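Fill in residues.
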């Protein structure tokens, strides 16, 4: 299952805390690495039917079914820059 680094969990919490749906909201990942667009990250008020929910503390990430399968052995990390937050994926060790 996808895991989150401390930086990613902090970034997700910060982003989600700014929404009115914060108690149930999360970052949703959908799509596939096989497409030219790759994965799409959106702020979602709650998980959609069939989503896998990954929780690290109060940080919640919702994975669409295809994305969940592809990201099963990955770690989500985040870097905060002046331009905003940049998320990256790596293999779990």
């Amino acid at each position: 299952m996808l895991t989150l680094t401390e930086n990613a969990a902090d970034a997700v919490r910060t982003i989600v805390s700014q929404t009115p749906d914060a108690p149930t909201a999360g970052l949703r990942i959908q799509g596939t690495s096989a497409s030219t667009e790759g994965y799409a990250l959106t702020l979602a008020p709650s998980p959609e039917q069939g989503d896998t929910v990954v929780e690290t503390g109060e940080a919640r990430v919702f994975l669409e079914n295809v994305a969940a399968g592809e990201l099963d052995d990955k770690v989500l990390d985040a870097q905060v820059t002046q331009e905003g937050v940049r998320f990256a994926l790596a293999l779990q060790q």
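Helices lie at 6-17, 65-70.
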